[in-house]
Design goal:
Blueprint: H1 10-13, E1 16-19, E2 23-27, E3 37-41, H2 53-74, E4 78-83, E5 98-103
Antiparallel strand pairs: 1-2, 2-3, 3-5, 4-5
Length: 125
């Protein structure tokens, strides 16, 4: 466990909305939209690609459960699902975390391009 990592003590400090053998999910402390959740592995690993296959699959399976919880509570119109890997990709907490971001009609003027918006000039194609 990394004492400086805000996610390593997530289970004791946050309201867990779903969990599995290798992962836990909770609402983001700085949500982009209502219902924005994070899924993290229990094991401290910086990159999604450094997780073993069982852990990767576990996160993906838990994403289905989290989507169901968000659907029931917030009724979004769509989702962005994203994992930042590395500082150049915007990762600021170096404990793997998958964002489950509910999207709502009208939340941005033009949602075309979705996650391509990480590089704004590439969003519209």
């Amino acid at each position: 466990m990394d004492n400086k990592c805000p996610f390593c003590s997530a289970e004791s400090e946050r309201e867990i909305i779903a969990s599995s053998e290798h992962s836990v999910a909770f609402y983001d402390g700085f949500p982009v939209s209502p219902g924005h959740a994070l899924i993290i592995p229990r094991r401290h690993v910086a990159s999604f690609f450094d997780l073993n296959k069982e852990e990767q699959l576990d996160i993906l399976k838990l994403a289905d459960s989290v989507k169901g919880i968000i659907d029931e509570k917030y009724h979004p119109d769509g989702y962005n699902v994203r994992v930042n890997v590395g500082e150049a990709a915007g990762q600021s907490i170096f404990h793997v975390h998958m964002h489950i971001i509910p999207r709502y009609k009208g939340d941005v003027p033009n949602p075309r391009g979705g996650v391509r918006g990480v590089i704004p000039r590439k969003q519209n194609y």
